Amino acid sequence: MCFCGHAQPFEQCCQLFISGQQYPDTAEQLMRSRYSAYRMKEANYIVQTYAQEKRNEHSEEEILLFANQVEFINLEIVDTGKDHRFQYVEFKASYLEGQQLSMLHERSRFIKEDGHWMYLDGELYPCEEKKVSRNDPCPCLSGKKFKKCHG
Ligand SMILES: [Zn+2]
Ligand SMILES: [Zn+2]
């Protein structure tokens, strides 16, 4: 299973985009591959898939800092949509910071540049943090106890 939640292995899914062998056909694919890039700490890909006007606002250092500080454990695509210029993807990405479980719940906006989907910006929904106890089921949904999995 790929990090993004698709059934195919990473090599046949998001890696194709991260390595530049293929371009995502849809904004959702791009979103998924950016999530996988966070998991793989492929900061360069994350920078390169920002829309042109946003690219300079993000550095690989800052992205790596975040990617190293948290552990993403689950991605859920809530909704996708489009209007004449943009595609939207609403997602929930759960991550751990030690025993603290947080979630990035965002409605992202994607735009096509030179025929390829790019991440433009997003609107964040407020999320509560939650502490995971050692004996709780792991929030990555592995079915194991937290202490035996991500704990
Ligand atoms: Zn994938
Ligand atoms: Zn786990």
From TrEMBL:
Domain YchJ-like middle NTF2-like: 26-122
Gene3D superfamilies: 3.10.450.50
Pfam annotation, one family: SEC-C
Entry-linked InterPro entries: NTF2-like_dom_sf, SEC_C_motif, YchJ-like_M
SUPFAM superfamilies: NTF2-like (SSF54427), Sec-C motif (SSF103642)
Name of this protein: YchJ-like middle NTF2-like domain-containing protein
Organism (species): Pseudoalteromonas luteoviolacea DSM 6061
